[in-house]
Amino acid sequence: MNAKIRATVWGENVHEKKHPTVAKIYPHGMHQQIAEGLREAADFEIRTATLDQPDHGLTEEILEKTDVLTWWGHCAHGDVADKIVDRVQARVLQGMGLIVLHSGHFSKIFKRLLGTTCSLTWREAGEKERLWVCNPGHPIVQGLGPYFEIPNEEMYGEPFAIPTPDELIFISWFEGGEVFRSGATWKRGNGKIFYFRPGHETYPTYYQKEVLLVIRNAVRWARPEGSLWIDSCPNVPIEKAAEKISQKGESLHKPGEAGFR
Q1: How far is it, in rounded angstroms, from Cα 126 to Cα 2?
Q2: What is the pLDDT of residue 154?
Q3: Is the Cβ–Cβ distance between 12 and 71 less than 8 Å?
Q4: Does residue 160 register a pLDDT over 70?
């Protein structure tokens, strides 16, 4: 296993170019601020990628060298090429970790992997968010207290159309009264997925120490564990069976036939 965790921070980098408010808060892009937060840890090797790069910065070579991918998207979900979604999905099934941030809940890759609409309710009013830790023994929340607060954030509210999480990490309460499952994990194939809600582009959320701590913890938690993933249906000949057996009955399927993998 690589001595350092190789993380790729992916961002649309669209709002930062179009909206002065976002550009003022994140002059080098939201992806760069998230990357800087990860670079505070000596055990990470960080690269960034954006939508406007060839293959959205997610070439086969780069993904092969990525242990964990973080994903922030919002206004350009539809501009992400399906071939890149296929490529990322394949790597997650093989074992690459995926950290989906804020409005990435509606990204093609998140909906593909979870198999649901991932829809929710929302309000943009700059209200206080309080994130309660549901699982204090989990690696993702180490270094936090029972809860932490974000002074100004966009509200996401239930119902959140996701499959039941493997682990519920955070529940958020908002100043307007709504609650939301704001931190949750799933396993798909060999890969670990963590969804983390905070991160609206018009607020400086990715400068807050608790938010960056959670993302660093999540990257460590999501790193590959090195297990073999079979993404085809290989035939195991009789002579390669673990125990000695003999053919009984007619074999209807033969390797190489149409429809046989």
Answers
A1: 41
A2: 98
A3: no
A4: yes
Q: What share of the chain is helix, strand, coil (3-state, %, to 5)?
A: 30, 30, 40
Q: Which domain holds residue 46?
A: 5-222
CB 95 within 8 A of CB 74: no
Does the residue 247 lie in any domain?
no
What's the CATH code of the domain at 127?
Answer: 3.40.50.880
Q: Is the pTM of this model over 0.70?
A: yes
> Measured between alpha carbons, how far is 238 from 75 in angstroms, rounded to an integer?
53
Residue 221 corresponds to which amino acid? W
Region at 22 (left for phi over 0; alpha for psi -120 to 50; beta for the rest)? alpha
- Residue 93, pLDDT > 80, answer yes
Indicate if the pLDDT at residue 258 is higher than 60.
no
Instruction: With cut-offs at 50, 70 and 90, classify the pLDDT of residue 234.
Output: confident
The reply to whether 229 falls in a domain is no
Q: Residue 54's CB: how many other CB atoms inside 10 A?
A: 7
Q: Are strands 179-188 and 191-196 parallel, antiparallel or unpaired?
A: antiparallel
Query: Can you give the pLDDT at residue 124?
Result: 97
Those residues whose C-beta lies under 8 Å from the C-beta of residue 44, and which sit 6 or more positions away, are: 4, 5, 6, 7, 38, 216, 219
Distance from C-alpha of 65 to C-alpha of 161, rounded to nearest angstrom: 32
- Residue 248: per-residue pLDDT: 84
- The answer to the question of residue 230 being in a domain is no
Domain count for the chain: 1
